[in-house]
Structure formats: structure tokens, C-alpha cells
Amino acid sequence: xxxxxxxxxxxxxxxxxxxxxxxxxxxxxxxxxxxxxxxxxxxxxxxxxxxxxxxxxxxxxxxxxxxxxxxxxxxxxxxxxxxxxxxxxxxxxxxxxxxxxxxxxxxxxxxxxxxxxxxxxxxxxxxxxxxxxxxxxxxxxxxxxxxxxxxxxxxxxxxxxxxxxxxxxxxxxxxxxxxxxxxxxxxxxxxxxxxxxxxxxxxxxxxxxxxxxxxxxxxxxxxxxxxxxxxxxxxxxxxxxxxxxxxxxxxxxxxxxxxxxxxxxxxxxxxxxxxxxxxxxxxxxxxxxxxxxxxxxxxxxxxxxxxxxxxxxxxxxxxxxxxxxxxxxxxxxxxxxxxxxxxxxxxxxxxxxxxxxxxxxxxxxxxxxxxxxxxxxxxxxxxxxxxxxxxxxxxxxxxxxxxxxxxxxxxxxxxxxxxxxxxxxxxxxxxxxxxxxxxxxxxxxxxxxxxxxxxxxxxxxxxxxxxxxxxxxxxxxxxxxxxxxxxxxxxxxxxxxxxxxxxxxxxxxxxxxxxxxxxxxxxxxxxxxx
Length: 530
Fold this sequence. Notes:
It is a single chain. β8, α9 (about 260-285) and β9 form a beta-alpha-beta unit. The protein is of the alpha+beta class. It contains 17 helices and 19 strands. It has helices spanning about 5-10, 15-40, 65-70, 75-90, 95-115, 120-140, 150-160, 170-185, 260-285, 305-310, 325-335, 385-410, 420-435, 435-450, 450-460, 465-475, 505-520; strands at about 50-55, 60, 145, 200-205, 215, 215-220, 235, 240, 290-295, 315-320, 335-340, 350, 355-360, 365-370, 380-385, 410-415, 485, 490-495, 500-505. α5 runs parallel beside α17 and α6 (about 120-140) runs antiparallel to α17. The strands form 6 sheets. Strands 8, 9, 10, 11 and 12 form a 5-stranded mixed beta sheet that branches. Strands 6-14-13-7 form a 4-stranded antiparallel beta sheet. It has a 3-stranded antiparallel beta sheet with strand order 3-16-19. It is elongated and about 95 Å long.
């Protein structure tokens, strides 16, 4: 066997071991880049959509980066890490999921070039950590504070998010709905976060997206239990929320009951009737006329006999309420969940102006309007002509809600249209000159990598990318920090004047997560099966 080279021997390594590390690192970089390139064409208002087909034959049409990557089947561990990166951005900011993947892919491409020149992965990771921190400083410096009372700016930010979606032509309709929904569930003076579980989105097939509306009350996907002829509309309802069942109890274990004669059958029927009537009398005594019943896996929430008596007493019944919906319903209607019939009293009920079942082409839904003591919750009814459009409208609305949540968490706006990335590229190149040495070389490569966003935006819009990026770099060098790509006119413009704005948190989160991901990949030198 040949002796290891003197250089490798001096470092205490064999040549084979060093080559293996290079191979593993290169494989990781290529695998992650391949996934990043798959979503690259989906960036921006003129980005392409992806049709995703599952093994069961389901079809999804979207250009949302997180959705594409989530539904994509990836095998390589590094590629799976990129999918997780996109999910992290979706959780943190809700938007910018495509951007974070493209930035990470571009950084990996630069990393590959620098590693080929002999730069150590550890040194590169440290230099890019510095570049990432400096990027956040630059973005914060160019951000403009926004007040939550400035509804117009919030709507512009939501429109920018929606402009790249399949349903972009409905952005002027969906953006105000998203803003109003978030404003209803928070106190604008003190809020520093939004719990989007307080915004209920009910998607129903039929009509068009133009019929999407904000409902100041509560919507249910469930139908009323009207098989026994119960009411489907009640004015001034008294609403009870129960966690017990109005049906005969069952034994804890599988038992058989052998009945010998007709008298015993009659006695069983009488006892069942007596048990159910006892519960219903307590419900009627409390004055309840709308009953919401939690779903049970052990026995029927309401049996046929109970439905008959409830219908006779003119009580509207809505069954199959999921356990995780209970707190939201309780908060929305001002009623309290009741776990036992003995505790069902008038003070546990919620009040409203009307409870009614409405018919749509996609099925029936129940709405409760004019709640007397409403909590800070809101419902949105999303309509769509087919399931593909409906699903995409729901995803797009969620992204718009997340954009407004970003502005509640960090009340700053920056320009869109590739302006922040172009500004970062120019400023980091200037910063690199002040560093000197290896760090300067690595930071300059980081600055070059960020130009992938304006380049891709121009490319996807059918504009000459090299000309656009060159003009953009020139204008930012002259101090025009809001110069960005106006996709509609196909030129460079002051993006702030064109109202193409986005929350600061989306850009800072994308840079932080992309740098973290690339640094993590650079430090991996072997893949060990477990």
C-alpha cells in the first residue's frame, strides 16, 4: 500500500479520509441545490405554478414553496433538511418560503466554488456567520416603522404577498379581509403576536373567490342534526356547549345482554326513554335552544330517540364538534363547556341574535351571528369554483394572515421586488473591503450569492436578468435603496412608491435560516447510517 502524502501525513490524516469528506460534503451540496432549483421558477408575481400529483391520484396546483417541498418526495438527508428549512420559514414568517430556499441554494453554489479553491469549510462557515449578522443590521437600517392603525400599509403588504399566488387577481379582495381578521383578534395598542387559531377559515365549494367574506360571528362546517324535523333557524338563541352524550350509556367492556321475554324488552326501552328525558329536561330547564355536542368515539352523541325529543322541544342540534374546536367555540360564543348534565345551568349558556343553517352548492353550513358577549375571534368563509382553486385560496389567505402577523411581531416594513437583496449585495461588498484577508473573500461571495433573488425575479418575468441586475447594482451604489424590479412595467423603479412592500421579519428570517442551514451543511463531513 502506498504511503500517504507528506501534507496529509503532517495533518495526521490519510488521503482517502480527506477525499471521503470532500465527497460527502459535495454530495450534500448538490442534493440540496437540486431541490432549491426545483422551486426557483416559482418566485415572484410571474413565477410558474407546479402541478403536484400524489400516488393516490390527488392533484395540487400551487407556487407556494412550503407546499411544493412538503408534498415533494425527497430521499437524500441534505434535501430533507432543505424541506425542513422551508417549514421553519413557514412557521416563523408564513411567507418567503420560496425565497429562503433560493437564497440557500445560491449560497451552496458559492460554497462549492470556494471549497474547490481550498478554503476550509470551518473558516467559510464563520465568515458567513459574520455576513449574516451584518445583513440583518443593514436590513434593519433600511426598514421603515409602521403603525398597526395604518390600515393602508398593512393592506399593501398583504397584496404584495398575494400577488405571486395563483389567486393573485383577487388580492384586492383577500388582503383587506386578512387585515380586518387579524385586527379583530388583537389589541393593536399592546399586541406583539397573533394566535392565528383565533381566525377560523371555513372553505366551502361553490360560487367564486369573489364571494369570500369575513363573518362577524361563528361558522360551522357541521350540519344541524335535522333528521327528526328539528329547527334549522332560531332567533335569539341560547347556546349550550356540552361534552356528554344524549344516548344510553354503554358498558366499559364488550358484554352481551340476553333478554328472555317481551316485558324485559319493554323495561329496557322504558329505562332508555327515562334516562334520555331526564337529560333533556335539564337542557330545557336551563333555557337552551341551540345545542353543540362534542364528538364521541365511544357512543353516539345523540341517538334517534333523543333527536326526536329535542326536535319536539324546538332545540337545534349540531353534533360532531371536534375536541380541539371546543376552546375556540367557547371563546367565540361566551359559553362554557359542560361535562355533566347536572352542571348544565343558564349561566353556562352563550347568547346571540340568530343561529341558522344556510345552503350552499358545496353543502350546508351553520352560522351564528350577533353574539352578545363575543371573544376576540373571527371566521372567514372562503368560496371557490373547484377544489384546486379553493385549496389554493385557503393557502394564500393563510399566507396573507401570516404577513399581518409578521407586522404585529415586528412593526417594520421594507421594499420588495429584489430591493433588499440588491441593497445587501452592494453594502456587503463595501463591508468586505474593510475586513481584509480570507473573511473578505468569503463575505464578497456571500454578497454575490444574494443577487440570485433579483436575477430570478427578472428571469421569471421574461426580462433580461443580467441587464436588470447590473442596473439595480448601479442604482443601489448611488444610494437609491428602494430601487427594485417593477414586474408590471418591466423596469427598475422606486419600489416603495409602487407599494410593493413586505414585513422586515420575512427578509431577516429568510437570511438567518438560510445562513444557519448552509453553515450546518458545511460542517457535515460524513453520513453514518444508524
